[in-house]
Amino acid sequence: PRSTASESYRGIRTNIRFSSAESVPQVILITSARPQEGKTITTVNLAVTMAQADSKVIILDCDMRRPQIHKIFGIAKEHGVSNLLVGTGDAGGSIIHTRIPNLDVIPCGSIPPNPSELLGSRRMVTLLNALRKRYAHILIDAPPSTAVTDAVVLSKSVDGVILVISAGHTPREIVKNGIAQFGVVSASILGAVLNGVDMSRDGYQYQYYYYYYGEDGDRKRRKFHRKKKSKDRYGQEA
Fold it and tell me: What Cα–Cα distance (Å) separates residue 159 from each residue in 16, 23, 85, 113, 202?
């Protein structure tokens, strides 16, 4: 809980909370421009962070191409979102309570032949409206936006979109294309999560805190600040 990674997710949670002057985004779609950028693990960790703030949170696995949520939580995926959208299941029976307080999950369900049509259906809107009454936050794990149209179709039914970008790996043009696709449907992009940043590389500055207990038992805080090394006129590190 005191790691820099945990603090980063708490920062994302705070940024989402203050991303709108009118109301906090309730239904958030998390995607990436291309596969293997960390969108699923970002979704899960963000959901855990929100649940730890005493908010009721649910994750919907809407990546019906390569679902991963059920593997992370060690649950079955046979009854889930796809079953609800085709009318072969009920929301109450598909919701799985995790061992993390305040955090529930609906897995992807059976893999359908037409994910885009299901995610863009009226039943999807009805499902989200029903969940809005029960949960403070609904996080949707969606497929990469440049690979298939699922995320773009689904973005019309959510309050905001977060794009996960793999630092140093994802080409800028691919990210731009992904953002442009959401712009076509006037989706609200809350921001981007830069994932997998190598903090040891030159050019990055960061600071962090750690707590320790003094002899009097009081918790104290020390601050460390690491700066990019500078070089003098002869190219030697200063």
Answer: 11, 10, 20, 27, 37
Spatial CA neighbour of 114 closest among 45, 64, 79: 64
Pair of tokens at residue 120: 């863009």
**Parallel, antiparallel, or unpaired: how do β-strands 189-195 and 160-166 relate?**
parallel
CB 48 within 8 A of CB 103: yes
Give the pair of three-digit tokens for residue 100: 């993390």
Three-point CA angle 142, 4, 226, nearest 5°: 125
State pTM to two decimals: 0.82
198, pLDDT greater than 90: no
> What strands lie across the sheet with 160-166, from one edge to the other?
96-97, 103-106, 57-61, 137-141, 27-32, 160-166, 189-195
CB contact burial 94-110 (16+ within 10 A = b; e otherwise): bbbebeeebbbbbbbbe
Q: Say if residues 130 and 138 touch (Cβ distance below 8 Å).
A: no
Helices 39-51, 4-17: crossing angle, 10 deg rounding: 80
The amino acid that residue 160 corresponds to is: G
Task: Write out pLDDT tens, residues 14-31.
Answer: 999 888 777 889 999 999
Q: Do the Cβ atoms of 14 and 144 come closer than 8 Å?
A: no
- The radius of gyration of the chain's CA atoms, rounded to the nearest angstrom, is 20
